[in-house]
C-alpha cells in the first residue's frame, strides 16, 4: 500500500492544504499560506541537506545554517537523528 510518506511531502500539502500561494494567493491576504509556504520550504531544505550529508550532526548543522532562527532546535535534532539513524 502506498502511503502519504511514500508520495512525499508535496502530496501531503496538496491534500491537506490545497489553497497555497502557488495557486495565486498572496501572503498579505492569506496569512496562513505564508506559514504553509515557510514550512514547505523548511521540509524541502531538510530533504536536500539530508541527501548531501552523511551524519546526524552534519544534517543538524546544515539546517541551522539555512534556518538559524527557527524555534525548537531540539525537534530538528530529533528529526536529524531519525533521518540518519
In percent, how much strand structure appears in the residues? under 5%
SSE series: HHHHH
Tally of structural domains = 1
Structural class: mainly alpha
- Percent helix, as a range, is 55-70%
Q: Mean pLDDT, rounded to whole units?
A: 80
Which key terms come to mind for this protein?
85 residues, mainly alpha, 67% helix, 0% strand, globular
Question: How would you describe this protein?
Answer:
With 85 residues, the protein is mainly α. It has one domain. The protein is built from five helices and no strands. Helix 3 (31-52) runs antiparallel to helix 4 (56-66) and helix 4 (56-66) crosses helix 5. The chain is globular and about 30 Å long. The mean pLDDT is 80.
In a nutshell, what does this entry contain?
By secondary structure, the protein is mostly helical. The protein has helices at 4-7, 9-16, 31-52, 56-66, 73-84.
Topology summary:
Elements: H1 4-7, H2 9-16, H3 31-52, H4 56-66, H5 73-84
